[in-house]
What we know:
Structural class: alpha+beta
Helix content: 10-25%
Number of helices: 6
Distance between the termini: 12 Å
Largest sheet: 6 strands, antiparallel
Strand content: 25-35%
Shape: elongated
Amino acid sequence: MSPKKIHGAVAALSALALLTACTPADSDPDATRDGAKTAEAEAAAEPVFRIGTVSEAEAAQATEQDSSAKASNSTASPTSTQTSAPQQTGEVVESGAETTVAPGERISLSVENAALSDISITESDHPRIKSDPGVFFDTAGSELEAADSTEDAKAGSSTPSESASGDADAITAPDDAAAWMSAYDLVADSTYELSATATSADGEEVDFTSTVTVSASDASPMAVRTILSDDQTVGVGAPIILTFGSTVAKKYRDDVEHRLSVKVTDKDGKKRKVEGSWAWLPDDPQSRLHFRPKEFWPAHSKVSVDVPLKNVPTTDDTVGQNDLTLDFDIGRKQVVKANAKTHRMVVTRDGKEVMNFPASLGAAKSPSYNGTHVVMSKASDYTMTSEQWDYETDVRWAVRIHNNGEFIHAAPWSTGVQGSANVSHGCINLSTARAKQYYDSAIFGDPVEITGSNATLTTAASDISDWVYEWDEWKKMSALPTS
């Protein structure tokens, strides 16, 4: 959850804090007996559940109040105490009842006469979305540390956490949890299933459920698209690329990203564990959101992507226009390794060498770039132009590997030095027959690794620079927590 939402939830919970039971301090035996009777009555009382909401405006105001409170606390003397009168807010709701709320709000659930054991909120139309982890609070309205920190909280994870009760969608509550608030805004025109388990003082577990219906929104739509196609077969270095119709505001990026899921299976449908992360690349000028695994995709896999972004806020005035799903295949693991010092281009496929060609890479004044490129597109006939070097040349069997002008292509004019010298303007030159052989084998997303040059790729100047980033750097570009 973003700092804005954490602070807003913490301060707003001052309005959700629960009344705490007090034991009389009177030394009168009758008062003690009366207190005991009161305690017994409270212990036997049934849990009472309340549902409330916090709007964006209230959360913003709460953030400011929370900052002031923290500054005040930092200057208080060690012996001073600061307390506030806990209040109960929200409507008392019976289990199974329906609740209607406005879009853009966050939902809260509190319980009296018991402690929360676990909670889950799932969107009925999109069961693959991970349950909102939210924030838990005690009876005084103080934020509680999460019961555990799992890999599921990390950026890019697509596996839901599991509660102590075994519910894969439920979040385990920390000890003494009396209230919970969602971390993400509720999506317009949606239905959520809210469920929780509370444990009373005598150890009895009580289940609670409620259907939460969110009304429609009049915000303008923003489209989301992907460059891949269903059933497309791509190379092991292919990123998942989402592009938006405009710029997604930073404060809504976690709301967008946490809804996305990526599932990887083998050809028989058995799940494969793949560590990966989404990352928001620099706007160009629209927002771009990419997913790549830590290492290359496992070969011969199937990838299923769920992008349920219809009605999800993208700015204060816009929401996602559409949901999107994508199912594609990872093909064989074909990797090109081109060395500017040895003047060779070696191609391996599933670990076996299938091509080993003499090549000519970029000359000293116009070098090829060290680093991992990926095949972006290819054309059997292509006209290469360069304002920098003032040329226009028709080539055959051109495979684009970067937006800075680097290709692998046929260059019959340089066959005499291929294997012994670098004379190109940054491209990898091959003979016509060899270029055709490689061209026929190349697919989108195949890695091309160049070494031995005097220049190195940067993260700029390409639509696909995903593999130029170090893994830790890549994860930091996620809008979700990385640990």
